[in-house]
Design goal:
Blueprint: H1 2-19, H2 38-48, E1 57-62, E2 68-71, E3 77-78, H3 84-96, E4 105-106, E5 109-110, H4 111-120, H5 124-134, H6 138-146, H7 158-162, E6 165-166, H8 168-180, H9 186-194, E7 209-217, E8 220-228, E9 233-239, H10 244-277, E10 280-282, E11 287-290, E12 293-295, E13 299-302, E14 305-309, H11 310-316, E15 324-329, E16 334-339, E17 357-359, E18 361-363, E19 366-369, E20 372-374, E21 378-381, E22 384-388, H12 389-396, E23 399-403, E24 408-412
Parallel strand pairs: 11-24, 16-19
Antiparallel strand pairs: 1-2, 1-9, 3-6, 4-5, 7-8, 8-9, 10-17, 11-12, 13-14, 14-22, 15-16, 18-21, 19-20, 21-22, 23-24
Helix pairs in contact: 3-4, 3-5, 4-5, 4-9
């Protein structure tokens, strides 16, 4: 972000050098978020509100997950007064660079008053003065504000330069730039919070704080803003009709969708935690070697890692430099291992049949190596603790490798 802001700052400095004198409600029952894609939900919204889909565009960004959605995202529409937002971002950058103050006169207007008039009260006169202050050359001015969109200038249509046009992607990317650098743009965001309290997005019924810049012109009503719902999001919408209240409905819909995402994410997290605590262990047909010699022992694969009984590992390494003893302290309920000491237990358990499964539960079994406590991942399967082989190697002095072609787990002790 810092690099991007400096690139923009350099562009703005070049232009300036030419000009300055020496609480979301639960998901609505009629939108089946769980069983519909967001695209299908928006299609339903368009039909219910009798919107001309060819003249409608939107962009949505979920701040928490980074998920985005566009409808006609790259189609250019009349932007109306939304163009005032990137104009004021130019001046906020210049203010932050110390090149101007709010008392600087721009085209006959005090800068601070002009910015507030353009954003809070959507003054066309103030916006025109600020636009001319960026550059009297229309093409150059449009290039400068396009920097906030992260779009390749070469891809912008001719209409972008001839008229006041923007696309949902153009405006959403501009909003992302604003939000991601929100500390630098705090004065501007504060103006957006105070802007047009009864227009467009702010006709939403959810009661959320909204920082926005709406645009209404003849046959269209547009808006872009930061929606501070329980799950905040960025939203821009272009309406091909003067349906101001529909923009508020769209905000409520996306806030409801955000509430659904919270439920979805919580369910996914719970499922992942359940899978971590109680996974299914699988016997595999992998081969096991110790210093190149094939050995047989019972082990399971859990989540892509191999898990062995500690005594089985001690048994197969008993004649190597990585040998270790295994004991158990009943008082502290701790497994005690000593490296280099002989193992006096039984041989490894049977390998079992590939494809067999077993229920596993995350174990909190404590263990020490040469008197020092170690934290290892272990699962209890049928009353026995199975430890991650690679983790055992890390604390007991052997290495573990895997040959994908031969599906061989290789333990090396030397």
């Amino acid at each position: 972000m810092r690099e991007k802001r400096w690139k923009i700052a350099l562009t703005l400095l070049l232009a300036l050098s030419l000009l300055l004198p020496a609480a979301a409600a639960p998901a609505r029952a009629d939108y089946d978020f769980r069983n519909q894609t967001l695209g299908q939900v928006i299609d339903q919204f368009i039909q219910e509100n009798k919107i001309d889909a060819s003249r409608f565009g939107m962009g949505w960004y979920d701040i928490e997950s980074g998920e985005t959605f566009f409808y006609n995202g790259d189609k250019f529409f009349i932007a109306a007064s939304m163009y005032k937002l990137p104009i004021c971002m130019v001046y906020q950058d210049w203010l932050n660079l110390g090149l101007m103050t709010t008392e600087t006169t721009v085209s006959g207007w005090k800068l601070g008053y002009a910015m507030e008039s353009a954003i809070v009260y959507s003054s066309n006169e103030a916006a025109h003065a600020l636009r001319n202050g960026i550059s009297p050359d229309l093409h150059q001015y449009r290039d400068i504000i396009a920097r906030y969109s992260d779009l390749d200038l070469a891809t912008l249509p001719e209409s972008y330069y001839n008229e006041n046009y923007a696309s949902p992607r153009f405006m959403l990317n501009t909003l992302r730039h604003l939000y991601e650098d929100r500390d630098a743009y705090a004065p501007l965001i504060d103006m957006m919070k105070r802007a047009s309290p009864t227009m467009c997005f702010k006709t939403a019924k959810g009661g959320y704080e909204i920082a926005h810049k709406y645009g209404a012109f003849d046959h269209c009503a547009n808006d872009c803003g930061i929606i501070y719902a329980d799950r905040p999001f960025l939203l821009t919408a272009f309406m091909g009709s003067y349906a101001i209240n529909v923009l508020g409905k769209l905000v409520d819909l996306m806030a409801d969708y955000g509430a659904y995402l919270d439920v979805r994410d919580a369910e996914a997290a719970a499922a992942a935690e359940e899978a971590r605590l109680h996974p299914t262990a699988l016997r595999t047909a992998q081969t096991l070697t110790v210093d190149g010699v094939t050995v047989r022992a019972g082990f399971y694969n859990i989540g892509g890692s191999s898990y062995f009984k500690l005594r089985d590992v001690a048994a197969i390494l008993s004649g190597t430099d990585a040998r270790f003893s295994v004991d158990y302290d009943e008082t502290s309920r701790t497994i005690l291992t000593v490296t280099g000491a002989p193992y006096a237990g039984e041989g490894p358990s049977p390998a079992g049949a590939a494809g067999e499964t077993a229920a596993a539960s995350l174990s909190s079994q404590g263990m020490t190596v040469d008197g020092a406590a170690v934290a290892l991942t272990a699962y209890n399967i049928d009353g026995s603790n199975y430890f991650a082989l690679r983790e055992l190697g890390g604390v007991l002095g052997f290495t573990v490798g895997y040959d994908e072609a031969s599906r061989t787990i290789r333990i090396t002790t030397g």
